[in-house]
């Protein structure tokens, strides 16, 4: 029977996914581009700029704060603080009304919520090796990631059928002021608060150690960076993850835009696509959770990346909507395993004494070049005047990351 802390840790992944699904990918990002920004092209550029700034903040803070958690025992406090930042900024998106006057408010709130989400993830991920024995790290990581996908489905379905598509709108919400769409921010914030609470309130963790502050943490960061730089397999793994994570991030950011542009899918169809992809993503993450501990984390990631590369290429070569749906559903099966097995691989590589710091570097590797994929996609699309040509950047990043990971030696 899993312990309370294990169940609470899995529930946090269920909670966490509401932000990425509702705010970043499917609902509020689309609302911003269509109803808040002056035009879709400008809105896309503004959204990308806000995410870039957030990425730079995350890159600057992830590793130092990870060291602070290692040296001073502040992990629980930092996890709580950044989760509260995520919840508060997500809820405040309710006040983003249609019109250009609210664009800056939206961008600041989304940027701050992204920082809260990613930095909370550093301390959340670092708990993994403490909650499962080495032979079950992959299983727990995959099950939690699968729960995250299922949580994303449930929250997105609640937004779609309980708020956006409901006629008449509940609670007297005014469609002309986009209140049913804006209310999804309140629902997502409440979702995160309710399901994250068990982990934040779980016993354990111990009090902070005296005499350890940010200055001491920065000194320890230098030592952690030197230690990481001397570990060739860790450096190679982080570089590989940087490449294929850029590919996955770009896929998430532009997949819905590609579907809408190339196949003329409307908002409801895009949301249904999101639900379907979360279903297949959850199935894949849970199924491969059992394979991770049997095959090893590295082979699991390589299998997932190989399938993602092949399926992404096949999607770019088809112009039939039914084929696109089938390939997209298959692609979803391998997104979760690539991410969950990467987390379990990091848990196996990172030394226990510097676990939070190394997961800070893990977060850094997923963010420091996060602008490269979208920028390359935009440049290729503009030069070739083709969405398909631009999306080919994703195939290159996934394949390059897989090839680099193949050379990483693991036990």
Description:
- It is globular, with a radius of gyration of 20 Å.
- The longest helix is centred in the N-terminal third of the chain and has 33 residues, at 40-72.
- It has a single domain, classed as MFS general substrate transporter like domains (Growth Hormone, Chain: A), CATH 1.20.1250.
- The chain is built from 16 helices and no strands.
- The mean pLDDT is 83.
- Helix 11 (267-295) packs antiparallel against helix 12 and helix 12 runs antiparallel to helix 16.
- With 411 residues, the protein is mostly helical.
- The chain has helices at 4-26, 28-36, 40-72, 75-92, 103-125, 128-131, 137-164, 179-200, 214-229, 232-263, 267-295, 297-317, 321-349, 355-365, 372-384, 387-406.
Key phrases:
mainly alpha; 0% strand; 411 residues; Growth Hormone, Chain: A; globular
Instruction: Please report the distance between the alpha carbons of the first and last residues.
Output: 29 Å
Taken together, the total number of domains comes to 1
Number of strands: 0
Radius of gyration over C-alpha positions, nearest whole angstrom: 20 Å
The helix tally amounts to 16
Within the CATH hierarchy, at the fold level, what is the topology?
Growth Hormone, Chain: A
Which sheet architecture does the biggest sheet show?
Answer: none
**Which sequence of SSEs, written as H and E, runs from N to C?**
HHHHHHHHHHHHHHHH
Shape: globular
The percent range for helix content is over 70%
- Name given to the CATH architecture: Up-down Bundle
CATH homologous superfamily heading: MFS general substrate transporter like domains
What is the SS-derived class?
A: mainly alpha
Question: What is the strand content?
Answer: under 5%
């Amino acid at each position: 029977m899993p312990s309370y802390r294990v169940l609470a840790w899995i529930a946090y992944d269920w909670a966490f996914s509401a932000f990425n699904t509702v705010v970043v990918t499917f609902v509020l990002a689309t609302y911003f581009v269509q109803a808040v920004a002056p035009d879709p092209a400008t809105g896309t550029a503004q959204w990308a700029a806000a995410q870039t700034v957030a990425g730079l903040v995350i890159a600057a803070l992830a590793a130092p704060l990870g060291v602070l958690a290692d040296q001073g025992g502040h992990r629980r406090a930092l996890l709580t603080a950044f989760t509260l930042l995520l919840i508060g900024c997500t809820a405040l998106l309710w006040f983003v009304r249609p019109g250009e006057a609210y664009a800056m408010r939206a961008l600041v709130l989304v940027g701050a919520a992204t920082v809260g989400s990613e930095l909370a993830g550093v301390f959340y991920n670092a708990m993994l090796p403490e909650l499962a024995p080495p032979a079950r790290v992959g299983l727990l990581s995959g099950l939690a990631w699968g729960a995250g996908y299922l949580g994303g489905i449930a929250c997105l379905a609640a937004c779609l059928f309980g708020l956006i598509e409901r006629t008449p709108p509940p609670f007297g919400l005014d469609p002309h002021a986009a209140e049913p769409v804006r209310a999804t921010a309140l629902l997502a914030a409440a979702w995160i608060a309710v399901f994250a609470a068990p982990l934040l309130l779980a016993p354990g963790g111990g009090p902070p150690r005296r005499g350890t502050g940010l200055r001491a943490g920065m000194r320890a960061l230098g030592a952690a960076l030197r230690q990481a730089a001397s570990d060739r397999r860790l450096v190679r793994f982080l570089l590989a993850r940087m490449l294929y994570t850029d590919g996955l991030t770009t896929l998430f950011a532009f997949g819905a835009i590609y579907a809408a542009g190339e196949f003329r899918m409307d908002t409801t169809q895009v949301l249904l696509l999101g639900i379907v992809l979360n279903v297949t993503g959850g199935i894949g993450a849970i199924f491969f959770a059992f394979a991770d501990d049997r095959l090893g984390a590295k082979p699991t990631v390589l299998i997932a990346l190989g399938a993602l590369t092949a399926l992404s290429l096949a999607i770019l070569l088809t112009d039939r909507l039914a084929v696109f749906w089938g390939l997209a559903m298959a692609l979803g099966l391998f997104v979760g395993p690539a991410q969950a097995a990467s987390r379990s691989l990091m848990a196996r590589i990172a030394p226990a004494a510097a676990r939070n710091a190394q997961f800070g570097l893990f977060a850094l590797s997923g963010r420091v070049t996060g602008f490269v994929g979208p920028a390359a996609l935009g440049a290729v699309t503009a030069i070739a005047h083709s969405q398909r040509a631009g999306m080919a950047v994703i195939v290159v990043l996934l394949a390059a990351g897989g090839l680099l990971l193949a050379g990483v030696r693991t036990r």
